[in-house]
Amino acid sequence: MAAPREVLASLLSKQSEAAASVQLTAMQPAELRVEVAGLGRLKLPVSTAQAKKLRGLGQPARFGRREETLTDPSVRDTWQVPVELVSVDWQGALEHKLASLGAELGLPRGSWFRAELHSMLLYEEGQFFLPHQDSEKDDAMVATLVVTLPTEHTGGELVLHHLGEETVYRGLRDRISLVGFYADCRHEVRPVQSGYRVTLTYNLMLQGNPGLRQAEAQVIDGLAAAITAHFDEPLRPTTSSRPEHLAFLLDHEYSEHGLTWQKLKGSDAAAVAALRQAAEKAECDIVLGLSEIKETWDAWEDDGYYGETEGDEYQVNDLIEAEIGISWWRDAQGREVTGAGLYLSDSEVCAITPNSSMEPESSEYEGYMGNYGNTLDRWYRRAAVVMWPAARRFAIRAQADPAWALEELHSIARHSDPVAAAQQARELEPFWAGAVRTSAKQRQLLGDAIELSVVLGDAEVARLLLEPFRIERVRGEHAAALGRLVKEFGSAWFQDLVEDWFGSDDYTFYLGEDRRENWLTELPELCSALLGSTEARRECRLIARHLVVRSWTSLARLIERAAAHQSLRIRREALTGLGDPLSALLRAALAVGDKRVPKHVVEHCLKYEDLVADCVLQALRNAVEVDAGSDWEPPFLALGRAVAGHLQARVDAPIRAKTDWSIELPSGCACPLCVELKSFLADASDKRREWPLAKRDRQHLHGRIDGAELPVTHVTVRSGRPYTLVLAKTDQLFTLDEQRRQRDQADLEWLRTQGMA
Ligand SMILES: O=C(O)CCC(=O)C(=O)O
Ligand SMILES: [Fe+2]
Questions:
Q1: Where in the numbering of this chain does the Fe2OG dioxygenase domain appear (predicted)?
Q2: CA-CA distance, 497 to 484, in Å (whole number)?
Q3: DSSP single-letter state for residue 674
Q4: From the CB of 401, is ligand 1 less than 6 Å away?
Q5: Dist CA 188 CA 155 (whole Å)
Q6: Residues 6+ away with beta carbon under 8 Å from 433
Q7: Cα separation, 684 vs 661, whole angstroms
Q8: How far is the CA of 157 from the centre of ligand 2 (A)?
Q9: Long-range contact list for 443-448, CB < 8 A, 24+ apart?
Q10: 288 CB under 6 A from ligand 1?
């Protein structure tokens, strides 16, 4: 049985006969007077002699690509006669022609075309225009009219492409040909084989204000029933969850600007008009939006074995999944909604024309990736109408646009009552966390959510609203609002919330700008904003202190994790990366007057001995950078002196003898193999070992050596059973030692200049 949405698409496909392009009945030469300044009236059919003269007036035609206008004879090769020189007298016939065109192209009643002469073109032998779309230069422009004057010529066909189909229109020898098409249709002029082809092109502007065309009552009933059935049936046979949306993809292309209820093209206009009436009947909201569709297909690279598949390099098999997202739409009143994120599953989408009949915007082939075999991703952009039950309006819109939800709740709280708003806010529960986490504007959202929480005054709802955020979003701009929050709900409540914001394991899953480390470096600014707040002063101070204490727990874990890296190089990089956060944390602690955190910092770092020296050094350098000139505060001084001691000890140690090949294996695994490895490495004279080992054991040792980036090569000699692992220490051991010594010396020197050594 067909799914309700398929029933809906099939009902709609019968709604309109509108074409995307059409050729009208040809006109007699005498019906059109074309005058060209300098040439006089053209005699129709245009003679070869006159065509040659026209050519003399022409310039190489230009074409638009994005913002530019270009001349490129490999794309468009034709002569353009300056339009100022041309005047066309239709002798009263134009209105009538435009009316037929409007009817064929399915303009709704109450609207019509107005034509503006755009250009006069002349194609001589070999000239052409590659496939392109006409840019909708004007808001009102929706279509193009090509008038081909009668001439003796072959070739030069005007070819229209729409929904995977090609329509070929030929000029006539003794009559005037008229072809109209919607501006989103790709079209081309094939090379002229002989003679001349002369055309006039017109931009067609949509005029008037179409009323909603009435679909037949029976059709509307059918559509409304399909819509209702769609929302009643489970999404898939195996689940009980029901669809939230129903989208119908349109056939024509639109820009954001051009997509309005009044300016739908051809068959879209009839389908959408019927859907609007059906949606109303089914008590659904309906919006008009631009969708982005990503389809993932199971595919393999075509080796040409299965016959010629012109232009296609891939053999496409099954659709694995389709995702559709809508971030811009216009509601039934025509108001725009931007920056939203409505996500639909493929069982919420239908269309008359499937995506596979359309040209994808882009596609990307991926070889075997593990989860699937080889896949081909295809992206499409299509206009769509989307419906949802009016009763679910708040939840649907809130999910797509969390900022709107907060604003809406705020206004309910202000205009009616906070209790009603809090009640409504509970509807957010099932999806709020997901909506917040996918939002691109989390910082602003956090501010709004805090404000709203205070207004609603309901601790449970506040928790629901605020929990999905992360500490990385909290900035100075939130200071006063945070103070109010604590005032309203108390500090125990707040500290629980902050625990969630930090995450239970301080796992920082953000990348780039949003990393925990980066946030920690902003801690002094955040604390100073909190300390500077003129509102809820006591609460703000409490918050600042608490954040400092909690941040140290977080940073201590990051330091621990960084120090555990087996490779000296990676360990150094990671620890150096934590220097700025460490400096920031100490500065923040000093600013809020916290004594305990600096004490813990010093103890923690000393516990690691020289392991965290790189972190401390970077912290000191950072402190100098942000606060040059002042005396060292005690915690910095204690750390600097401890590090100076370690460095001094390393520098004082005797230089490695040329005969000393001992290498220290960082602690980690202590299995019997690693114990043996450790003793081989520690041996000062043993440079090489041949070790017959089974595959798993060899791999374990590879992992250990590579993980620690030791100056030791490991090669498997594949003969005998088991194979033999050959380990050999390399000269790099000495260069690494020397580099480290030089660096220690330089660091020590720098600490001296700071009065710490
Ligand atoms: O000359 C024609 O038939 C069409 C020319 C065209 O496509 C254009 O000017 O955009
Ligand atoms: Fe064109």
A1: 114-206
A2: 15
A3: H
A4: no
A5: 12
A6: 467, 468
A7: 4
A8: 13
A9: 443/473, 443/475, 443/477, 444/403, 445/402, 445/403, 445/406, 445/469, 446/473, 446/474, 446/478, 447/477, 447/478, 447/481, 448/403, 448/406, 448/407, 448/410
A10: no
221 touches 281 (CB < 8 A) = yes
Q: Which residue has the tokens 């955020």?
A: 469
What is the pLDDT at residue 212? Answer: 67
Ligand nearest to the CA of 148: 1
Q: Phi/psi at 445 (nearest 5 deg)?
A: -60, -40
Question: From residue 21, how far is each of 102, 145, 277, 634 by CA, in Å?
Answer: 11, 10, 27, 81
Distance 181 CA to ligand 2 centre (A): 10
**CB of 508 closer than 6 A to ligand 1?**
no
Residue 134 in contact with ligand 1 by CB distance below 6 A: yes
CB proximity list for 262: less than 8 A, separation 6 or greater: 111, 206, 209, 210
| DSSP-H helix ranges across 578-633 | 579-592, 596-607, 613-626
User: How far away, in angstroms, is 355 Cα from ligand 1 center?
Assistant: 27
User: HSE on the CB side for 174, CA within 13 Å?
Assistant: 0
The position carrying tokens 């489970």 is: 234
Amino acid making up residue 277:
Q
> Is the interface score ipTM higher than 0.90?
yes
CA distance linking residue 329 with residue 515, whole number of Å: 33
110 CA from centroid of ligand 1 (Å)? 29
Backbone dihedral angles phi then psi of residue 121, each to the nearest 5 degrees: -120, 145
SS3 category, 270: helix
Asked if the model's pLDDT at residue 158 lies above 50, the reply is: yes
- Reported as a single tens digit per residue, the pLDDT across 460-517 is 999 999 999 999 999 999 999 999 999 999 999 999 999 999 986 665 555 566 789 9
CA distance 126 to 194: 8
The size of the chain, in residues, is 757
From atom 9 of ligand 1, which residue's Cα is the shortest distance away? 201
Q: Looking at residue 369, what is its pLDDT?
A: 59
Cα angle 173, 179, 185 (rounded to 5 degrees) comes to: 135
C-alpha 208 – ligand 2 centre gap (Å): 25
C-alpha span between 595 and 465 (Å, rounded): 34
Strand order in the sheet with 40-41: 40-41, 33-36, 86-89
